[in-house]
Design a protein that fits this description.
The protein is α/β, with parallel strands linked by helices. It is built from 12 helices and 7 strands. It has a 5-stranded parallel β-sheet, with helices on both faces. Helix 11 links the parallel strand 6 and strand 7. Helix 1 packs antiparallel against helix 2. About 30% of the residues are buried.
Length: about 200
């Protein structure tokens, strides 16, 4: 392994979906079923997936979600709640990536199903993430979502033709890893920074 492909949410930063759920439900008349369907990406308008594929711009997404949920809310308040589901850095991950970079052991590429709101928030609050990544591959810029095989093929091309057998892909979602393995990448289901680094030590 000389290239690390790594996920963002649930791997580099923690996720606090329940926090956003409670905040939306604090508004009068908002249905829990509607909020759950939105956050679980199964709402009838497919809003989150479309946003993460770059098919809706930020203002349009906020307006559409407010309409879907029946929210009387300012764009600023909506954004605050939307970004509240992004938690702090996962313990040990900044040190792990800094160690890899300092030792020159691997190129690091970020692969994320995300959106402009969340990624902007991450860059502002966890600037070490873009700083330590040699490549950043975001669904809303690519128009593709994991686990679509085309997503991984595009990243491999964008990474300068790196050999897929020399890639370790770390993600916290089994379906994303399954597709990557079928394409010839080595994979690791993320549990903790220590477990990930133990796998890196074996492969390096």
């Amino acid at each position: 392994m000389n290239t690390l492909f790594i996920d963002l949410g649930g791997v580099l930063v923690s996720l606090q979906i329940e926090k956003a759920l409670k905040a939306y439900l604090s508004f009068s008349g908002v249905s829990e079923e509607a909020v759950q369907s939105l956050l679980q990406k199964r709402d009838p308008q497919d809003l989150c997936n479309r946003y993460e594929k770059g098919l809706i711009e930020k203002t349009g997404f906020y307006r559409s979600v407010a309409g879907f949920l029946g929210l009387e809310i300012t764009p600023e308040e909506f954004e605050r709640i939307w970004n509240s589901m992004i938690g702090p850095a996962v313990p040990g991950m900044e040190a792990a990536l800094r160690g890899l970079k300092a030792a020159g052991r691997a190129e690091i590429h970020l692969l994320s199903n995300t959106n402009p709101g969340h990624y902007g928030y991450v860059c502002e609050n966890e600037p070490w993430i873009p700083e330590l990544c040699d490549g950043v591959h975001l669904s809303y810029e690519m128009g593709l979502l994991k686990p679509d095989p085309a997503f991984y093929e595009a990243v491999l091309r964008q990474s300068g033709g790196v050999s897929r057998t020399e890639v370790l892909f770390v993600d916290d979602t089994a379906a994303n890893l399954e597709t990557a393995r079928a394409l010839g990448l080595q994979t690791h289901l993320f549990i903790s920074s220590d477990a990930m680094m133990a796998q890196v030590q074996v492969l390096c």
